[in-house]
Please model this.
Amino acid sequence: MKRFRSLKRRALLLAVLLAAVIIQVHSQGASNRPRRVAVFGSSVAFGTGDEFGKEGYTGLLREMLAPRGWEVLNQSRGGDTTKTMAPRFAPEGAPAPNVRYLLPVNPGYVVIGLSLANEGILEARTKEDKDAVFKQYADGIKGFIDRSRQNNIVPVVGLVYPRMSYTSVEYEYVRRMNLLQNSWDAPTVNFLGALDDGTGKYTIGFDSDDRHPNAAGHHELLYAFVPSLFEALEKGKQTPRRPAGVTGYARVARTAEGQAPLMFSPQETMHAFAMSFTVRTQGDGTVAAVSGSTLAVTSEAKRVGQREFQSMTLSAARPFTAAIGVRNGKWTFTSSGAGIGSDVSADSQWHDIVLSHYTARGETLFFVDGKLVGKTVERLQPNRFVLGGPGSAGNPAPPQQADYKDLFVFRSALNPDEAAALHEGKLLQASLEIYAPLNDAQFRQDGSIENRAQSLAVIKVGAGRVAHGK
Model:
């Protein structure tokens, strides 16, 4: 019996040691992952359409990440689909010359940037055929996610690109694919929300031809990347989830005319964006604000070979401050463009608010409870988001008291399907820089609060009375 117990203790000790070794090896593998990002996709990822020949958004991503100590490689090839790109993941036997494989460059991270149009969605004539293309594309990208993880590479998925030849039928598939990939356990980048003209096509002036953005368009795609995404992944930050079983919220009481209780200032240029939160109040006043610069646009005709196109240049014009609030008991939005009113009352019930701005096409959409209540024409570059007050004396004072939960800030605009999905309780993580559930135990002035997005961005607590409510 004593010998049996001794053997049992030894077996238990060996199991504990083995588990510790496995954990250590896994930890070392993660910490030693190269700071190398490979962009692995088709022609847009390759940089086609960039009239300056600087590799489009891949080259721009390289410029943005280089000062942070990252290397970005372009392993893309024009025309690829999920099927034709699969053999380039790793060579079988000796590598073929002049082929951009993924594994041989030893990346720690991969951005998968493929086109639903390349997959054949336009050529498919029947609903059954289009459904089959949709499934093939989704399954193929899932396959790249799985193979990447099997090889200790962290996958990042670029959502669907626009295309000039999309009809309303294909646009529906594009929007469906965006929502589907948004639900995966993998970080994603919302390219569509940067350049969508509202019908699935590239916004005029940001396109090079039917299939590709020009240099200005590639810049807009770059802005959809969360700048600290790769550092957050390196630190092991997981796909954001809503906290389970939590009923807490932030309660903000009026203390000053221009109060800014909760603030976020993006550290890199932001163009297309969306701000979303859930709020409960009865009194009139400003509950959130966005400020920055309006953008002036100039158009230039360009010619590259036989190809002619228009290119838009955006430049800072004048400061703006936009406000979301309650006026005469109804939810409203005011900004540099025409104000947007709604018929939804601030009635002490929780309401979901989404402000979605498409910089390229110059349009802001305002949603209340998942429904579009209006649009206004303006072109904005935000540099500060405020929740719980006006952020400046130029906006109406806040209500005497308001409650807030689930603050989101995206580096890409949201379309009506995506605003409705948020209202339904789904969590969209594409181009998500801020997700604050706002159920922190306390909100200390000059401190920061929890951010569950895969970013290192910080939400600061400013002046004002902010308390935990439940």
In short: Confidence is low (pLDDT under 50) at residues 1-9, 11-30. The domain at 26-234 is CATH 3.40.50.1110 (Rossmann fold).
